[in-house]
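FAQ
Q: What does a multi-component entry look like?
A: The components come first, one per line:
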Amino acid sequence: MEPRELLWADVGVHRRRLEKSALALIALGRALADQRSLTPGIDGFLKLLDEVSGAQPPHFTRVWSDPVAYFWVRRAVHLIAGCRGEPLGTVERAYCAEVGARSPAAALQLHLEEFKRFALAIAVVSGGEIVFAEPYVAALPLAIPGTDVVITGGERATIAGAHGSDIELIAPRRTLGIESAAHEGVRAERCPAVSVGDNRVFLNPARFRLPGIGFPIDWTGLPLDFQLRYRSTAVAAFDAIRRFQPPTFAHMEEALHTIALRPNDGTFFNITTSELPGSFVCTVPSDPYALAGAFIHEFHHNTLFAIEEAGPFLEPGERDEVEGENHYSPWVETLRPLHGILHAVYVFLPVFQFWCSVIDERPLDEGRLAHAKEQVARIPAQLRIGVNQLRRHACFTRVGSMLFDEMAKSVAEAEEAARVMGATLQAAVIGVSPSGALRPIRMNGRTLTVAEAMLDHLTKTDVHGECGEERADLERQIA
Amino acid sequence: MKGQPIHLKKLAEEHSAEIDRMTEAMRREDGGTLWTAEMPAVTRGGKCMVISAEDEPDSPI
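Then the predicted structure of the entire assembly, as tokens:
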């Protein structure tokens, strides 16, 4: 496959990732069947695995397409390696700390217990029955994989099993009806969803409530009303993507599963993790077009992570290219790993195309037009710094080199497109107000320009002086 | 996700060599080679510049 097709057109990349996680589930069952003494609970897990594997293909596919399925099987694989003496990765170390496991074997035991959520989900989507030999003590809120159902309303629920949409609880014993309208105590709620073409995308923060996930999760306990309140903004954002960035919309229609909207609490803004394919988190309130830009950005992280399943892009070096925050990035306030900079270059290319298309819309709201002009001016300049940083510091694998060269070509095309459109770094910087409105940022009594903002960022953040050439260029533009 | 539903038995037949490789990887000391433990990554999107609430007194927030 040509690099350009692999980067931008290959919708099958998401399906291959799903199939890999299904193959890993089969292999996991076989490996654990031979190693039953590794940790307690393997017999019970294998029994449940039989139930899940025996589900009708449409039911299995629906449940196993859930982002959490990938998270679950990948953690299981790494924890088994940990049981055999391999060093634990970042996520597994955090996982052990958060669940209070003192060894990989103890963590694996707890993790195998969590497979019950998938057996429960199969019962819910198939209308079948599952009775757990030992009850499932689930931390709440619990998103039932592959569905819009969230069990909420307390710290924990002790689940004996399910019969279709009836979930059996114990202590106290009662039946939790998914269709009931209970508003208090432990209960089942349904998260909102939005249509992306033929695809139904869930707005479900509980999906992200996982130990070791790598970012704060307190916000995932917010009432689902919060998602409902901003659902219309999300709908308008997807509509903008459909109109102005159809290639991304086609990928989203194929592979986007769950998003979550969260308030800006100062901890982080928007986030995608490699461990939850088909999902991301974005902050609201936001202007729908700005949110569309964020959706495109976050979704393409998903796509690049899926492409990376075939092998790493960066050769291992003395400094940690994936997690070591060592290099200046024009997009964030801290130093970033080279891997993160490569991702940023990739995801901002379709965001640039989106804003170019938006500018052609007439009539366009004044705030949006100003924001679009800022983005069309700013993104190519940031992309150039990103490409320069990677050229200076990255050691690519063969595949990584091929894909980076293609991205660098696209960056040069973006620079040329911006020039033809008359974009300059004298464009005004547009900020987002607390209510999501787009307004120019004023500083010292006048409007801040992109060149000034970029130079200020470089001055404050390029602590190792990696971008002297780019800094001098910005200073020339301001003088 | 679009596409044909995954039939696990068929998938296992079609990819038996890959499953054997994965199973063997999980049985060995270096069972983590199926996925490189160092590869998980979180990407944090850059924050938009936020106008303070004082600049927008009528804001509902």
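Q: Is there any commentary attached?
A: Sometimes. For this entry: Chain A touches chain B through 89 residues (CB under 8 Å).
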